[in-house]
Amino acid sequence: MAYDKIQIPAAGETIQVNADLSLNVPNQPIIPFIEGDGIGIDITPVMRDVVDAAVAKAYGGSRQIQWMEIYAGEKSTQIYGADVWLPAETLAAVKDFVVSIKGPLTTPVGGGIRSLNVTLRQELDLYVCLRPIRYFTGTPSPVKAPEHTDMVIFRENSEDIYAGIEWAEGTPAAKKIIDFLCNEMGVTKIRFPESSGIGIKPVSRDGTERLVRKAIQYAIDNERPSVTLVHKGNIMKFTEGAFKQWGYDLAKAEFGAVEIDGGPWCSFKSPKTGAEIVVKDVIADAFLQQILLRPKDYSVIATLNLNGDYISDALAAQVGGIGMAPGANLSDSIAMFEATHGTAPKYAGKDQVNPSSLILSAEMMLRHLGWLEAADLIIKGVEGAIAAKTVTYDLERLMDGATKLSCSGFGAAVIAQM
Ligand SMILES: NC(=O)C1=CN([C@@H]2O[C@H](COP(=O)(O)OP(=O)(O)OC[C@H]3O[C@@H](n4cnc5c(N)ncnc54)[C@H](OP(=O)(O)O)[C@@H]3O)[C@@H](O)[C@H]2O)C=CC1
Ligand SMILES: O=C(O)CCC(=O)C(=O)O
Ligand SMILES: [Mg+2]
């Protein structure tokens, strides 16, 4: 491994992936991190302090993370040159070191610049976006019983309209596609062919199966009662509708599920506990009202890329907002952890925002490494800080009698509560 700008910490060792895809984690693993744009500058150092404190407390110096900064986004353009937003060596380091964590990266609306976040997921084939939604007691919420929201989203991360295959209105490429559709494919439904931009929505059987397989396996491993396929298959039949059908087919073929109540819902007995696991589906718009009205009906969610994006923020709001929502992007071997929220530019550099999303993403990372004691300490710290009503502005503004802390102050409160 030779890099140009990335400095490999001398003391650290590389995580290895075993043949069965389990990890061999040394006591001083090198973990690459991307600071992130906007509020990345605020939350990333706080996340590192909290993780270092949890690891030190859990293992008394016998284990330590060796952080290694890698670059993407605005910081990359400062280090590598004006147009270098995602250097090749950043992608290489994420692969070489197996487990990494990132802050948010800016994607301007329009203008043709593609999302670096989506590019990272696609280039590394991190096909699962895993976003657990859980409630911390005492967190202010707009719903009456936020503790009933306990879901784990498996969002397909590599395809769908999110793949960014589109052509701008008025370009020769858009005209070519529109001409092809109208003249060769018999399409008559493009309302304004002269002034349409065009986007393509690929959804594959392979992509669906690998995502749904992970979601069902998660339900088995974590003793969850159901997996719900969320789709808009009544309208987009051969993409979202196919996702639903392929999901059911996989549950039957690989997990032995059989139809219940005349189908299409099906269920199987967990090979681990013998408990029944139901595989069901719901149309996305109905789902968005049911998560408010009947959140207890849902546990593991498997969905497509765009639906998963919307659902992530909607569910996060039910348990306190996107300042509290962690996540991970996973392939079969590589894991890149990241918060659900973006760069919140109006707060950048002000030491105000809630670092919990990134701290809880790091908590998922520690669990992924098998460092459960350190992960548990982070949960204890976050629970303690919220119970003591020492919180950042986003929670304080909705909480009676709370003390408003800065981003770094909240990190210190989490450490003090461990
Ligand atoms: N994975 C990634 O890197 C992602 C990147 N993005 C990118 O981020 C940029 C900004 O996106 P935008 O749509 O504004 O969404 P953001 O998630 O960045 O921010 C929207 C609002 O959410 C609240 N918020 C976000 N993060 C926190 C936090 N840590 N603590 C407390 N409140 C928080 C704030 O609400 P309030 O104003 O009420 O305080 C903020 O104004 C865009 O370029 C977008 O593409 C977006 C999502 C994911
Ligand atoms: O990449 C982006 O800019 C936004 C991505 C996003 O909102 C998400 O993945 O949740
Ligand atoms: Mg999003």
TrEMBL record:
Residues bearing the modification N6-acetyllysine: K144
A family per Pfam: Iso_dh
Organism domain of life: Bacteria
Protein's UniProt keywords contain Membrane: no
EC class: oxidoreductase
Residues annotated as binding NADP(+): T106, H341, G342, T343, A344, P345, K346, Y347, N354, Y393, R397
Family, as annotated: Belongs to the isocitrate and isopropylmalate dehydrogenases family.
GO MF: isocitrate dehydrogenase (NADP+) activity; magnesium ion binding; NAD binding
Gene3D superfamilies assigned: Isopropylmalate Dehydrogenase
Matching PROSITE patterns: IDH_IMDH
Manner of cofactor binding, per the entry note: Binds 1 Mg(2+) or Mn(2+) ion per subunit.
Quaternary organization: Homodimer.
NCBIfam families hit by this protein: PRK07006.1 (NF005425), prok_nadp_idh (TIGR00183)
Phosphoserine carried by residues: S115
Enzyme Commission number: 1.1.1.42
Name this protein carries in UniProt: Isocitrate dehydrogenase [NADP]
Cofactor(s), by name: Mn(2+); Mg(2+)
Species of provenance: Chromatium okenii
Domain Isopropylmalate dehydrogenase-like, first and last residues per copy: 30-414
Modified-residue entries (N6-succinyllysine), positions: K102, K244
Alphabetical GO biological process terms: glyoxylate cycle; tricarboxylic acid cycle
Reaction equation(s) it catalyzes: D-threo-isocitrate + NADP(+) = 2-oxoglutarate + CO2 + NADPH
